[in-house]
Specification:
There is one protein chain. It is built from 19 helices and no strands. The protein is an all-alpha fold. Helix 4 packs antiparallel against helix 10, helix 4 runs antiparallel to helix 17 and helix 5 (70-90) runs antiparallel to helix 6. The protein is globular and about 60 Å long.
C-alpha cells in the first residue's frame, strides 16, 4: 500500500477512536454509577481521569516521536489505547475502570500530536487543504456522534460496549500501520529535558483537574483551590524554563513565527468557544423546552454536519481567497451565529436550533481548518513534532477552559442554585462563547493573504524514485 494512503487510514481510525472516547461516556455515567453502587459525582472521575491523563501525556509527545520514531510511538500508543479500551469494558469496579481510563488517556495524549506529525510530514503544505476532508471526521463528527451513540449503546446493550467498539478498529489499524507506515526520526540534540517535564506535565494535569472538577465541586473546594493555583505557578515556571533551555521539552520559541503563533492563539479561543457552546446549549435546550438529555445531545449534532461541509468549502476557497480573507469573515459570521443561539425564542424552535448549529459547524469550521493548515505551512519538517505537540496542548486547554468558563457563568447567574429551569444563565454563558470566537478575528488578521504555494517543479528524480528505477 502507498504509505501516504496508509497514514491517512491509520490516522483517521485512531483519531476517530480518540475523539469518540472523549464524549461517548457522558450519557452512561449515571448507569455506571448505579451498576457499581457509587454516587454520580464519583462516576464523573471516569471522565476527568481520561482528560487529566491526556493532558499529562501531551508535553512529551513531540520529543518521544522525534527520539524513537513517529511510527513506533504512534502504533505503540494505539496498541496501548486499544488494550486499555478492552480493560475498560471488562472492568467490574469503579477503581479498575478509572485506572484503565488513565492508561487510555495517556495513550490518547500521544496519539493526536504524533499522528498529526505523521500526516503533515507525509503531505507538503500545498497539499494539506485536501487533508481537511480527513481531519474533519475525527475532530468534528466523532465527538458529536459520541453522546447519541453512547446513549443508544447504554440503553439497548450495555455501557461496556462503549469501550469494546474500539477493540476491532484499533487492532486493524495497528496491523495496517505495522506494514504500511514509514518510520521517521529526527535528530534530538542533548538529553531529555527532565526539568521541563517535571514542570510542564504536572502543570497541565493540575490545570485540567481544576477546570474539570471546578464547576461541579466548587472553585473553593480544597482539591480545586489547591490544584488550580499550583498548576498556574508550575505553568509559569515551566514557560520560563522552556524559553531559556537549550534543548527544551517543548519548543516555545516556535511561537516567534507570527503565522504559527496566530494559528495557536486562534486554536485556543475557538476551541474554548466551541466546547463552551456545546456544553451550555444542550442545558439551555433542556431548560427552555424540557427536552430529554438525549434530545439535547442530538440538537447539537448538525454542527458536525456543518463541519464536514466546511472541509469541502475550505478546500475550494483557500487557494482563491487566501487564509486571511477566508478566515476573518468566517469568524465574524461565527460570532453572529453563536450570539443568535442566545436570542430568546430561538431554543424553543427546533428547526432554528438545527439550522444555527449547522451554521456553527460550517462557518467556524471553515475558519479553523483554514488557519490550521496555513499556520503550519512554514514549519520545517524537523520541527513538526514539536509544533504539533504545542498546538495540541493549547487546543486541549482551550476546550477545558471554555467548558469551565461557561459553567462558571451559569453558576454565577443562578443556574446552579435552584433556578435550573431559567434559561437566562445559559444564554449569558452562550454570549461569552460568542465573545471568545470574536477574539479569534484578531489572530486571523495576522494570517498571510496568499495560500501556501506548491514547490517549484523539480525534474531531478527523488532518491526513492531513483532506487526504485
Amino acid at each position: 500500500m502507498n504509505p501516504r494512503i496508509a497514514v491517512v487510514i491509520v490516522y483517521t481510525a485512531a483519531m476517530c477512536m480518540n475523539g469518540l472516547d472523549s464524549t461517548i461516556v457522558g450519557p452512561a455515567l449515571l448507569t455506571i454509577a448505579r451498576d457499581f453502587g457509587e454516587p454520580v459525582s464519583a462516576a464523573n472521575t471516569v471522565e476527568v481521569a481520561f482528560l487529566v491523563a491526556l493532558a499529562v501525556a501531551l508535553p512529551v509527545a513531540g520529543w518521544l516521536g522525534d527520539r524513537f520514531g513517529t511510527k513506533r510511538v504512534f502504533l505503540g500508543a494505539l496498541a496501548v489505547f486499544t488494550a486499555a479500551s478492552a480493560a475498560c469494558g471488562l472492568s467490574q469496579g469503579l477503581t479498575t475502570l478509572v485506572l484503565a481510563r488513565v492508561v487510555q488517556g495517556v495513550a490518547g495524549g500521544l496519539l493526536t500530536p504524533v499522528g498529526m506529525t505523521l500526516l503533515f510530514r507525509a503531505f507538503p503544505p500545498h497539499e494539506r487543504m485536501k487533508l481537511s476532508k480527513v481531519l474533519i471526521v475525527p475532530t468534528a463528527l466523532m465527538p458529536a456522534l459520541g453522546p447519541p451513540l453512547g446513549g443508544f449503546l447504554t440503553e439497548h446493550f450495555s455501557w461496556h460496549w462503549l469501550f469494546f467498539v474500539n477493540v476491532p478498529i484499533g487492532a486493524a489499524a495497528v496491523l495496517l500501520g505495522t506494514v504500511g507506515l514509514r518510520e521517521e526520526k529526527e535528530d534530538v540534540e542533548g538529553g531529555f529535558d527532565l526539568t521541563g517535564f517535571l514542570l510542564a506535565t504536572p502543570a497541565l494535569g493540575l490545570l485540567t483537574y481544576a477546570l474539570g472538577f471546578g464547576p461541579s465541586h466548587g472553585w473553593t473546594s480544597p482539591s480545586v483551590a489547591v490544584a488550580g493555583p499550583l498548576g498556574l505557578i508550575l505553568l509559569v515556571a515551566g514557560c520560563v524554563h522552556l524559553l531559556r533551555a537549550k534543548n527544551p521539552l517543548l519548543e516555545l520559541r516556535l511561537l516567534a513565527d507570527k503565522v504559527f503563533a496566530s494559528a495557536t492563539v486562534l486554536a485556543l479561543v475557538t476551541s474554548a468557544g466551541l466546547m463552551g457552546v456545546l456544553f451550555a446549549f444542550p442545558l439551555l435546550y433542556q431548560a427552555a423546552l424540557g427536552a430529554s438529555a438525549l434530545d439535547a445531545g442530538l440538537s447539537v449534532f448538525p454542527e458536525a454536519l456543518g463541519l464536514m461541509l466546511a472541509s469541502q468549502v475550505a478546500d475550494r476557497l483557500m487557494p482563491k481567497l487566501g487564509p486571511r480573507l477566508l478566515a476573518v469573515p468566517a469568524l465574524l459570521l461565527a460570532t453572529g451565529v453563536f450570539a443568535a443561539l442566545a436570542v430568546p425564542g430561538v431554543a424553543e424552535n427546533a428547526w432554528a436550533v438545527r439550522a444555527l448549529m449547522f451554521c456553527v459547524g460550517l462557518v467556524l469550521g471553515t475558519a479553523v481548518l483554514t488557519v490550521q493548515i496555513a499556520g503550519f505551512a512554514d514549519v520545517p519538517p524537523p520541527a513538526m513534532g514539536q509544533a504539533m505537540g504545542l498546538f495540541t496542548i493549547v487546543r486541549t486547554l482551550g476546550g477545558a477552559l471554555g467548558i469551565a468558563a461557561t459553567a462558571a457563568v451559569i453558576a454565577a447567574s443562578g443556574g446552579a442554585h435552584g433556578q435550573e429551569t431559567d434559561p437566562g444563565p445559559y444564554r449569558a454563558a452562550i454570549l461569552v462563547t460568542a465573545g471568545l470566537v470574536a477574539l479569534g478575528m484578531f489572530a486571523a488578521l495576522r494570517m498571510p493573504k496568499e495560500a501556501p504555494a506548491p514547490p517549484p517543479f523539480d525534474d531531478e528524480p527523488r532518491e526513492e524514485e531513483a532506487v526504485a528505477a
